[in-house]
Write a structure and sequence with these properties.
The chain is an alpha+beta fold. Helix content is about 40%, strand content about 15%. It folds into three domains: about 10-85, Glutaredoxin; about 95-220, Glutathione S-transferase Yfyf (Class Pi), Chain A, domain 2, CATH 1.20.1050.10; about 235-350, Protein of unknown function DUF952 (ADP-ribosylation fold), CATH 3.20.170. Helix 1 (about 20-30) links the parallel strand 1 and strand 2 (about 40). The protein binds glutathione. The site of glutathione has 10 residues, from helix 3.
Length: about 350
C-alpha cells in the first residue's frame, strides 16, 4: 500500500477531549477550516491509528503534524494557530504581566483543576490513586466529595476574577478564557446541579453561558471539526457487517460472512474495502438499512498476517477496481475497532486529501 504524504497540516483530534476542543477553538479562530487548510482526523482513543502512533510516541490528542513538525501539546497547537492569525487578540495586545497571568491560569487549570476534575468525574478510574488524594480509609464518596470541593474552590477563584470585566483578564477574552473553557464546561457537565446552584459562581456561570450560547464552541463540536466516527486510516482494511452478525461472530470467535446475504463458504473469501472504497461499498450494498444496523469493522492487516491469513487484491466482478479479499474466516482479534456506520463517512469533509 502506498505511503501517504499529506500536503496540508493534519490534526488528530477527539470530539469530546477538552484539550482537543481548545486546540480546535484556536485553529477555527485563526480562520482555518478542515478540508481546506488542514485535514482533520477524528480518532478513537481505544484504537489510535498507526499514523498517530508514528507521529507522536505519547499519542495523546490533539496532535498537529505540519510537514516535519509534530506539535503534540494542545497549548502549543493553540499558539501555532495564533501565529497564523490572531485577529481576535487572544495573545496579542496584552502586557507581559497579563500574559504571565494567562499562563498561570492555564497552569492551574491543566494541573490542580484537571487533577480534581478527573478524580471527581471518574472516581472508579482513580480508585487506587492515593498518592495525592486524601487519607486512605475514606470512602469512595468522601474522596469524590473532596475532589469536587477542591475543584469548586478553584472555580470560585476564577469566578472572582470575572467580576472586574467579565473575562479572566479583564474586558475581553484572552487565550486563558478559551483554554479553560472546555474544562469548566466539563465540570458543569459532570455536576450541573452543584455548578448551577453555587451562589458564588454567578460570574462564572454567566461567562460559561456566553460561550455555550455563542457559535465558536458549537462550531468545533460538529463536522467538519468533529466527527462521531473515527477517521478510517488507510493502513487498516474494512468490512461492513450487519450488527447482529458481528455480535454473533464475536460470541463464536470467528466471523464467516462474505458480504450481505452471502457466507464465506458460498463465496470463498470475505469482501473487504480499503479506506477510500468504504463509502462506495456502503452505497452499493447497505444504503437501504437503518442507521445502527451496519457496523464498520476496522481490521489490522498485520494481525491477519500474524494469524497466517491471506489478503489478496482482486478485481471485483463488474468493476475495474481491485478490492482486498480475505481468504479465510476473520478472527475478532484482528478487528481493532468497530463502530456504527454513519453517513458522515460519505461527506466530502471526511475524505482524504
Ligand atoms: N497535555 C496534553 C494532554 C492531552 C490529553 O491527555 N488528551 C487525552 C484525551 S482528552 C488523551 O489523548 N489521552 C490518551 C489516551 O486516552 O489514550 C495536551 O495538552 O495536549
Amino acid at each position: 500500500m502506498a505511503v501517504e504524504r499529506p500536503v496540508a497540516p493534519v490534526l488528530y483530534s477527539f470530539r469530546r477531549c477538552p484539550y482537543a476542543i481548545r486546540a480546535r477553538l484556536a485553529l477555527a479562530a485563526a480562520g482555518l477550516r478542515p478540508g481546506r487548510d488542514l485535514e482533520l482526523r477524528e480518532v478513537s482513543l481505544q484504537a489510535k491509528p498507526p499514523e498517530l502512533l508514528e507521529a507522536s510516541a505519547k499519542a495523546t490528542v490533539p496532535v498537529l503534524v505540519d510537514g516535519a513538525a509534530v506539535i503534540d501539546e494542545s497549548l502549543a497547537v493553540m499558539r501555532w494557530a495564533l501565529e497564523q492569525c490572531d485577529h481576535q487578540g487572544w495573545l496579542s495586545g496584552w502586557s507581559r504581566a497579563e500574559v504571565a497571568a494567562m499562563e498561570a491560569l492555564i497552569a492551574e487549570n491543566d494541573g490542580p483543576f484537571k487533577h480534581h476534575l478527573d478524580r471527581f468525574k471518574y472516581p472508579d478510574r482513580f480508585a487506587r490513586d492515593g498518592a495525592s488524594g486524601p487519607e486512605t480509609g475514606e470512602t469512595a464518596d468522601a474522596r469524590r466529595g473532596h475532589h469536587r470541593q477542591a475543584a469548586l474552590a478553584i472555580l470560585r477563584r476564577w469566578s472572582g476574577r470575572l467580576e472586574r470585566g467579565g473575562w479572566l483578564l479583564g474586558t475581553r477574552p484572552s487565550l486563558a478564557d478559551w483554554a479553560l473553557l472546555p474544562f469548566v464546561r466539563q465540570f458543569r457537565l459532570a455536576d450541573s446541579q452543584a455548578f448551577d446552584a453555587a451562589s458564588d459562581l454567578e460570574p462564572l456561570r454567566f461567562w460559561l453561558g456566553r460561550f455555550l450560547a455563542g457559535p465558536e464552541l458549537a462550531v468545533v463540536l460538529d463536522p467538519p471539526w468533529a466527527f462521531r466516527s473515527p477517521w478510517p486510516s488507510p493502513r487498516w482494511l474494512y468490512h461492513l457487517a450487519l450488527r447482529s452478525e458481528w455480535q454473533t461472530a464475536r460470541a463464536e470467535g470467528a466471523y464467516r460472512r462474505s458480504t450481505r446475504g452471502r457466507s464465506l463458504e458460498e463465496v470463498g473469501f470475505i469482501h473487504l474495502s480499503q479506506a477510500h472504497q468504504l463509502a462506495a461499498t456502503h452505497g452499493r450494498f447497505y444504503a437501504d438499512l437503518a442507521p445502527g444496523a451496519v457496523v464498520v469493522l476496522a481490521i489490522d492487516p498485520q494481525r491477519l498476517a500474524a494469524a497466517g491469513l491471506e489478503v489478496r487484491l482482486e478485481p471485483a466482478p463488474g468493476s475495474g477496481e481491485l478490492f482486498p479479499h480475505l481468504h479465510g474466516a476473520l478472527p475478532p482479534a484482528a478487528v481493532v475497532a468497530a463502530w456504527p456506520w454513519r453517513t458522515e463517512h460519505g461527506s466530502p469533509m471526511s475524505q482524504r486529501w
